[in-house]
Amino acid sequence: MVSRHEGGLQNARKASIVVLSYLEQPLSNIRIYRQAIATNTYLQRQNVILQDELSRMRSAEQQNQILRDLLDLRESSELNLIPVRIVAKDLRGVNNAMTINAGSDDGVKVGMPVTNSDGLIGQVIVTADSYSQVLPYANSMFRVSAQIQESRAYGIVSWPENRHNELTMMFVPQTIPVDSGQVVQTSGASNQFPGGIPIGEVIRVEPGDGVETQIITLRAYADLWTMSEGFVVAFEPDSTILELENEQMEMF
């Protein structure tokens, strides 16, 4: 029947072709739809892979920049710096703490400041052979003697509880002008921290209640919640100054 060309068979052949053409169109649409679904699934999978690769590249770039900044700080600083990595953090309350991977075997001692390329992080309070506990600036017990870089006015910096990356500087007289953007650094006057370590910048100033001093709010330079590396500053209080302070306390 396929090979014969009589009129009746030829007409039947034409009719079958017409019928098949009508059936082929929806079937081809189904095939195209299934191919589109498969292609879309493949592209989505590739997009996830590329997004993950891009995220890793951005993270690596950020990590490289942090390490470069730390290296620049170590090369330019006159202080003896011990590189450390943050291995544990507890920043959920008011008695926050951090653990670093350096201890007495590495030359770390209680009282030494901890910093990074951005600014002051905290102070070592407990040491073991290979690890140390750090009191970060975001702790209700933290205090540091500071000065405003531009005016050299002295004050005490502490943490107003539950404020992310904010600090408060007290005891600066109202007669001293303080403006937003001014830099606050360690003063070196307390014999606990070397002078010149950046702490933060002024973001607002308010008069103190019933006193002739100002309440200065700072934005801390170092972000405790994102940092992973830093330095312990191998600084020890001057023993002569400590002896004089002890003698003074005995006298009064």
Automatic annotation (TrEMBL):
Similarity comment: family membership: Belongs to the MreC family.
Keywords: Cell shape
Gene Ontology cellular component terms for the protein in this record: plasma membrane
Xref: InterPro entries: Cell/Rod_1, Cell/Rod_MreC_2, MreC, MreC_beta-barrel_core
Gene Ontology BP term (one): regulation of cell shape
Official protein name in the record: Cell shape-determining protein MreC
Domain Rod shape-determining protein MreC beta-barrel core: 86-233
Entry keyword Ribonucleoprotein: no
Domain of life: Bacteria
Ribonucleoprotein as UniProt keyword: no
Pfam families: MreC
